[in-house]
Predict the 3D structure of the following.
Amino acid sequence: MALPSPACGDFPTPPDLVTAVLRCLQVRGDRWPRVLEPTCGTGNFIRGLLALTDPPREIWAIEANTDYVDQVQYLAQQSVQTQIWVRQAHLFDVPLQHLPWQTSGPLLVMGNPPWVTNARLGSLGSANLPAKRNLRRLRGIDALTGASNFDLAEAVWCKLIEDLLEQCPTIALLCKTAVARRILQIAWERQWPIGNGAIHTIEARRWFGAAVGACLFHLEITSATPCYEVGLYPDLEIDCPTSRLSLAGKKLIANATLYQQFSFLEGRSGIIWRQGVKHDAAPVMELTQKGPGRFQNQLGETVDIEPAYLYPLLKSSDLFRDRSGSQRAVIVTQTRLGQDTAHLEKEAPRLWRYLQHHQAFFARRKSSLYQNKPAFSMFGVGDYTFSPYKVAIAGFYAEPRFRLLTSVHDRPMLLDDTCYFLPCHSLDQAQQIQAFLSSPPCLGFIQAQVFPDAKRPITKKLLQSIQLPD
């Protein structure tokens, strides 16, 4: 199961972290005579288990990498108190419910599955992938925009729970915090009987040199009433949660207490939140103004095109830091989705020559959004794009800051696809909406649902759930 390098998502667990994880699990006083490690790597977790005062009586370890298996086999041969079984196999090929345990009693499943996406494994030609299925039961448009590219650890979690439901194990894995949240969501959707869940934050940069939100996520499969609320702990040493992650309706809530205080705002926005323009060709489509009428692309080239196709642009960082005077500009080739761009050859010959000259950048765009579309197509364009008044927010920052945008030199301010906005028909409407969204109750409602470690803490789905006043 393990992969050859951190670049492929394989992060061997340092012995000191193993010790901290085991200490965290032992605080509750539970003991497990049986332990399964589904992706054992070189065996650091097994070494930690064997070093315990009261080690498990039996351990099953699964690993696909031959070199790793040899190391764990040697470890097994040295063990006196604990019987260790090592199976060389891809985890997804092993029916875990049929492992021939010789010991009875509570079961602990623990380890550190690869931190890599299925797309990354596929690009590496790995055969160690779960059977193709819509893990999150996504709509077609979500799959097109990349939401179907799940972390492999999600599939590991799902297999462990589904295979071992009847044995009611405790499962404790190191994983991305985003994976832990998605598993909680999936557990609720599928009504898996889980309980006593906890997310303990770990410093991924310290332990693995990885800039990603990470945690020890553990839960129990229970025969009692399921509980889909999870305690959030700032580290492995603290035994009292600072907040609780829960579900409200079908969505995850980062801070249940804060959400309850401001849940009266839950509803649906009467105005559709929009995302900024998307082109996936920033080197040639995004320009910087170097003087009156003078623009330069990211390749360092001076760009001479018809001004009618140039618009002022803000990105997430500009919006968050209120840099409304940014010198950025973006080329816009369409005013609506799917619009034919052939007319540009006659109506904007300089722009057409420029785009043709840089056609290779557009040819490299891999997203299905651009397949079978007119040349130089964009996404996220419509009448709303050119609204002279907008209330906007950056999607890449956990702190919600709503900005009121107006036109610049009679040109509507545009945003890139990392931002969200409400198009407004008047300055008065924009001012009222900004004031409402910036009020303490509204900010509290948003912050109760924001996960700071998420790639995009502010989402359209969250914003759309805010009930705007009539």
Summary: Confidence is low (pLDDT under 50) at residues 1-9, 118-127, 137-146. The radius of gyration is 26 Å.
